[in-house]
Amino acid sequence: MKHAKLVSFTAAGAQTAARCAAFLPDFRCERYARTVDLSLSGTSLARFAQQAMVDCDLIVFVGAAGIAVRAVAPYLMGKAYDPAVIVIDEAGRFVIPLLSGHLGGANAIAERLADGLGAQAVITTATDGREVFAVDTWARAHGCVVVDPQQIKYVSGALLRGETVGVRSDFPVDGRLPAHISLQADAESGFAISYDTKAAPFAHTLHLVPRLVHIGIGCRRGTPVERIEAAVRAALGAAGVPRGAVCGAASIDVKRDEPGLLLFGVQNGLSLAFFSAEKLRRTTGDFTPSAFVEQAVGVDNVCERAAVCATGGGRLLCRKTARDGVAVALAERSWRARFDG
To answer: Which pTM does this prediction carry?
Structure first.
C-alpha cells in the first residue's frame, strides 16, 4: 500500500488533515498535528520533511504554501524521484499540488481531495491548464515507467506550441490518438512505448516501458539472494527486457519461506506470488519438462509455469534459464496502449 504523511500546524488544520485522510483509502496515512499532539512539539519539521521525501508516496501540508516549500526544498531530487506534495489551507478551501503533479499523481490526488472537501483544486501545470495531452500522466495511468524524464519537456513543449509529436509502439494501439500525436510523423520529439530503451526514432525520444513482465523463479533450498539476482539479471539481459518492465515474481508455494527469494522481492520492490503444484500443473502452455523437478515438487516445471500463471495466461518471453542452482523464466501479460483522444 502507498504511504502518505499529512502534517498540520493548527487545530483547524488538524481537522482538515483528518478529513483528507478519509479520502485516501488507498494510502496508509500518518497524521502529524504539530500544535495538537504535544509529543511533536519539540520535533524538527526539517527532519520530518527529509524523512518523508524518502519514504512517502504523498506528503500533504495543511497550512501555508511557504512552509511546505521551505520544508521540502533542500531534499528535492527530480521529477522522477520526488513524491507527490500537496498543500491545503487550514480551512480546506484550496488544494494545490506543488510537486510531481503528473508522475507522482499529485494533480489527480488534489482533484480527489478537493472533491471530497468541497474545495477548489489549483492545478498549475501547463498541459492541464491548456487541456493538452500530458504524456507523463498517460504513462502513470497506464502502468508505464518513464525511463528518461528529462525528455518530457521536449514532448510537452512541442504539444504546447501546437507541433506534432510522434509515437512509436511495439504494442497494439487502440482508440483515437490525442490532438497532434501521430504514429506516422517523422517528428523531432516523440515517445516510444517499448522495452527497447536504446532505440531513438526521434531526436528527442521519451521511452515509456510498460510494466508487464513477471519473473518465474525456481531455486535450491538455501540459495543466497546474490545468486538469484545474478540469474534474473542474466535472463532479463538475454531477453532484452529492462528492469523497469518487471512488475512481479512468482514461484511454487513450497518456496514461500525461502529467505533468498523473499529478500530478492524486498530488495527489488516486487510482490511475490506463490502457487501450489496443482495450480501450476493446470497452467496451459508449452513448457520445458524436468523429471527431476517433478519428483521433487510435484510439477514438471516451476519457473515457466509460475511466470505464465502470474500473468494470467500471458506469453513466455524467456524460457527456463538455469544458473548456479537458480532457474528463471519471464512471461508477459497481454496489454494494449489505449488512448481516448
So the answer is: 0.84
